User: Which sequence fits this backbone?
């Protein structure tokens, strides 16, 4: 029986659409869906190096959360991720909001300042990390050199070697790297506010602080939702800056240890002690993942509720 | 009298002059903090280690390019550089090809499976592949791709593809159907319509998708750290850690290495700052 022209057309049409859709979907299935599903599965097995052993149920999870060797490290690192999140929320996102407000009026040099604040954002984290590691060097780094030059010798410190300042230094390096991002996202958010609203408030005699608090901040809520969610995800995936600046062990004495470093050490070992534990690493990755998904969704929903349509 | 719309931007009667002044001071201080470290990095690259230690803030002799010559001539930095270009170029190309294919199909052809396809890519957008690095590592080993540039190319393509699909689909959906219909009446085949009629119009979203992916791929360090062992296959950020480990005490070399690594993306950014800012904030600005 001959194929009707219409059938032939649909067949040809269908194979054309399939040709467009199947390769990208197959690619995603192999390199995203399959690894992510496996990541969950791997956590339930015992591993010997790269070889999968017996099914061990929740043992790996129990070890990560409550075990005598693993749990104290994990909770210590988790705490540092929380500190970093809070500090970066204030310094990076909060600072970005104020910088955006200053840029919003397009003052003299607006274009220059806007480009300048985004320069560190395009640099690799590795470059940023090494640069600040050299700058914070106790003897020859420019930070201490500047303090000596200003006669503030007593303020000079081995910033990355001192337990009380190391984590703070990493957080500030990170804020230097990324503050341009929230600044320009907030700036775009502010530019979407109808100018009449701000002008009306000005005419009513609202002062700068009230304007910022009661009008601008609520109206840029959509930007806040995205920026805080991204920061949340970023803070619990934090790895590069600590790795480059203080090393895999979170020195000094684990005071800069974060979950990303613990995960890497557990899964891929470190130079000194080359022990790989894919089971425990997978369990830790799964827990971090679930934590991020659950809390980031809750955070997004909560932040969305305060967004106003205009 | 000034127009009202202007009044709130230029700090007129309502705004005390001190506020505008204070704002200017803060902005200048901030730009200084953002740029000065980069300036010190470049200046130090022209100094010997001794000069850096003695005059950390001084101006160097700019004809003294020994550090650069050593970095480019005696280290593996040029190799890392070429690897970064290959990996970033191939990944962005694959992202654009696959992203355009899937985005075009979803945007221009009615199908019951479209929602499923979009949900599939949406899931990919949400899930951080970093946390699936162990299974990815084993998969790449089984495919014999581990420790090759391909391991990075496929990983970056997988990470960048979902957002590219959404960018392309969003743009292509907005193109009027008349364009296609006219070509169809003229007897053009579907591939021909896509290639000659629709895609020439889709350059702006391609540029956004390309920039959005180029910067993070060029800068990525995590996946090379896990996948690549052989020095000859390392990309710039990972090679930089090797380099920094080898020359720990030669600060002139270190700063020259950092400067060379930072130069291409920084110069490109200064030349195309508007496109960079638009591309990199595209996901966060509606």
Assistant:
């Amino acid at each position: 029986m001959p194929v009707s022209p219409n059938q032939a057309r649909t067949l040809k049409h269908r194979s054309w659409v399939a040709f467009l859709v199947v390769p990208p979907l197959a690619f995603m299935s192999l390199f995203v869906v399959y690894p992510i599903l496996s990541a969950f599965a791997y956590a339930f097995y015992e591993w010997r190096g790269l070889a999968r052993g017996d099914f061990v149920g929740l043992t790996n999870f129990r070890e990560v959360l409550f075990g005598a060797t693993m749990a104290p490290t994990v909770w210590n690192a988790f705490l540092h991720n929380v500190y970093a999140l809070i500090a970066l929320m204030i310094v990076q996102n909060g600072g970005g909001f104020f910088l955006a407000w200053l840029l919003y009026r397009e003052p003299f040099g607006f274009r220059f300042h806007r480009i300048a604040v985004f320069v560190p954002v395009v640099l690799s984290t590795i470059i940023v990390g090494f640069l600040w590691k050299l700058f914070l060097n106790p003897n020859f780094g420019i930070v201490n050199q500047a303090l000596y030059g200003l006669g503030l010798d007593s303020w000079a410190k081995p910033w990355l070697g001192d337990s009380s300042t190391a984590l703070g230094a990493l957080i500030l390096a990170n804020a230097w790297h990324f503050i341009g991002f929230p600044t320009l996202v907030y700036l775009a958010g502010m530019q979407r506010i109808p100018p009449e609203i701000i002008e009306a408030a000005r005419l009513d005699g609202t002062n700068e602080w009230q304007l910022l608090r009661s009008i601008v901040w609520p109206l840029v809520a959509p930007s806040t939702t995205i920026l805080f969610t991204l920061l949340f995800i970023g803070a619990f995936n934090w790895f590069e800056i600590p790795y480059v600046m203080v090393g895999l062990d979170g020195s000094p004495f684990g005071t800069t240890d974060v979950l990303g470093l613990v995960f890497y050490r557990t899964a891929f070992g470190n130079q000194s002690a080359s022990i790989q534990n894919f089971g425990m690493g997978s369990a830790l990755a799964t827990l971090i993942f679930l934590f991020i998904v659950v809390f980031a969704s809750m955070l997004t929903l909560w932040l969305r509720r305060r967004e106003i349509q205009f | 009298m000034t127009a009202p719309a202007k009044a709130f931007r230029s700090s007129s009667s309502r705004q005390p002059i001190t506020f505008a002044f204070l704002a200017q001071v803060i902005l200048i201080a901030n730009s200084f903090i953002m740029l000065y470290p980069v300036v010190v990095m470049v200046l130090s690259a022209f100094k010997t280690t001794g000069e850096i230690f003695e005059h950390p803030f001084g101006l160097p002799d700019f004809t003294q390019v020994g550090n650069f010559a050593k970095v480019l001539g005696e280290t593996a930095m040029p190799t890392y550089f070429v690897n970064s270009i290959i990996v970033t170029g191939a990944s962005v190309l694959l992202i654009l090809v696959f992203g355009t294919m899937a985005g075009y199909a979803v945007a221009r052809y009615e199908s019951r499976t479209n929602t499923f396809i979009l949900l599939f890519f949406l899931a990919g957008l949400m899930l951080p592949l970093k946390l699936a690095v162990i299974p990815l590592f084993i998969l790449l080993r089984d495919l014999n791709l581990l420790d090759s540039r391909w391991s990075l190319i496929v990983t970056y393509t997988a990470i960048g593809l979902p957002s590219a699909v959404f960018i392309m689909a969003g743009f292509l959906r907005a193109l009027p159907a008349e364009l296609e219909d006219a070509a169809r009446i003229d007897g053009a085949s579907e591939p021909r319509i896509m290639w000659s009629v629709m895609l020439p119009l889709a350059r702006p979203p391609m540029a956004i998708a390309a920039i959005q992916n180029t910067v993070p791929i060029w800068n990525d360090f995590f996946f090379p750290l896990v996948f690549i062992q052989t020095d000859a296959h390392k990309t710039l950020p990972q090679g930089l850690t090797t380099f920094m480990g080898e020359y720990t005490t030669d600060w002139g070399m270190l700063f020259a290495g950092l400067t060379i690594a930072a130069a291409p993306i920084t110069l490109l950014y200064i030349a195309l700052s508007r496109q960079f800012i638009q591309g990199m904030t595209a996901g966060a600005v509606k």
Observations:
- Chain A touches chain B through 90 residues (CB under 8 Å).
- Residues 80-255 of chain A form a domain with the MetI-like fold fold (CATH 1.10.3720.10).
- The two ends of chain A are 62 Å apart (CA to CA).
- The mean pLDDT of chain A is 90.
